[in-house]
Structure formats: C-alpha cells, structure tokens
Specification:
Elements (H helix, E strand, L loop, with lengths): L11 E7 L8 H11 E10 L10 H9 L7 H11 L10 H18 L7 H10 L1
Length: 130
C-alpha cells in the first residue's frame, strides 16, 4: 500500500504511477513522500483521472463514489506537487484524447463482446460507461 509505504530519502531516479492517484485519499501527503524519495534531478511521471474544475454533476459524483475514486481538479493536483517541492510541474488536461480512446474501445466492445455479455451486470456496466 503506497500510502503507508516508506523508503529512504533520495532512493529513486524515476517514479512512475499510472491511474493510481484517483484511488488514493491523501494525495498531498503522497506527493510530499514521492518528492522526498526522488534523488535530486529525479523524475516523477504520473497519469490519472482528475475531475473538472468547479461543480460536477450528480451523475459524476455518483460514479466516483461507487468506485471509491477520490478525484480532484487538475489545478489542485498541480498545487499539491508544487507544494511538495517539485519545481517543474506539467499538468495537462488530456480529456479529449482519453475520450477518443474510450470511444474506440467501446466500439470494439460493442462489435465483438456485447452479444456475449449476457449477464445483467455486464450489460448495465456497458450502458453506464457508454
């Protein structure tokens, strides 16, 4: 569990995390730990879901809650990393690109697997994501 894990300071040249941060509650604390774990000049590479700025829809709120996601706006994520000590932070909204990937995946799913996904749960999940 990365939220409780500890490593000596300056242990890593590179830390990569893909799609983990939305599941973690204390992003600010983990950002500080990762800064401490990186050697001077080390690189932190993160990808993960963020939520939009401002108010989100109830449907989005329910989606996050059902999956125990703790998504924050990208600006807040950026601020956590800067506060932790990272000097160069590039936080980009890649929503359009991500949506295009999801649509392609759903098209493939719809063509190849939906007919086979005959359980109520699979059908409901497919419709919810679509």
């Amino acid at each position: 569990d990365i939220e409780v894990e500890e490593y000596p300071a300056e242990s890593f040249d590179f830390i990569m995390s893909r799609e983990v941060f939305p599941h973690l509650k204390n992003k600010k604390n983990l950002s500080a730990k990762m800064f401490r774990w990186l050697k001077p000049g080390g690189i932190l590479f993160l990808t993960g879901y963020c939520r939009g700025e401002g108010q989100i829809t109830q449907k989005a709120e329910d989606f996050f809650k059902k999956r125990d996601y703790h998504a924050i706006p990208i600006s807040q994520f950026h601020d956590h990393l800067k506060a932790a000590g990272f000097k160069t932070v590039k936080a980009e909204d890649q929503t359009d690109y991500f949506v295009s990937i999801c649509r392609r995946e759903l098209e493939v799913f719809d063509q190849k697997f939906k007919k086979e996904a005959n359980t109520k749960i699979a059908a409901e999940t497919f419709e919810e994501v679509k």
